[in-house]
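Re-run with default settings, no changes from the original entry. Doing this only to confirm the output is reproducible before filing.
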Amino acid sequence: MTLQQRHWGCLLIIILSITPALARDIQVLGLFNNMAILDVDGKQRKLRVGDSSPEGIKLITADSEKAVLEIKGKRITYALGQKISASFASDERKGEARVWPNHSLYTIPGAINNQPVQFMVDTGASWVAMNTRMARKLGINYRYEGDQSVAGTAGGNVRVFLVKLQSVKVGEIELQNVDGAVIDSPTSDEILLGASFLNRIDLMREGQMMLLREK
């Protein structure tokens, strides 16, 4: 274990992650400029342009007549009241990310909430975790929106703020509503890609390479 990894330590909380299923029953209930109201499997979702629902449906554009939705990488235009067929399913190739060791650490560029970041893959971390400086840089209002808790690390107990990250992207894989943690303690600016993301994908090793693949 490197000094950097020991500094972060293992955050001692068990996260139970459930991969959201692709929605099969979607209806456009309301259309406005830059906003749409959808019924997704019986649950009402209000999306503004750029937002994604917990089911992974992203609103690209909207006006009073139509909305453009992106589902599993496919963009389709829908009118008010139109219902998306339950037979819709994506047969696209599953997204992947390949990570090679960099001085014994597995680092890879990615994005949080559509903003570029550098990740370090850490299977011992419970969350996608960052320090307060990086959270502020990414515009995450952790003090207002986060749930305050305490986690044990190799350096002792530290205060953490548990937050929801709208999106986390690595390579071709993008997940919505990922559990994150903001660590209120001096740490590296590197962001840990922990179990709250890794548990929702398949992780394999091919020699020294680490392969991340969408489930």
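The CA atoms of residues 51 and 58 lie 6 Å apart. The radius of gyration is 19 Å.
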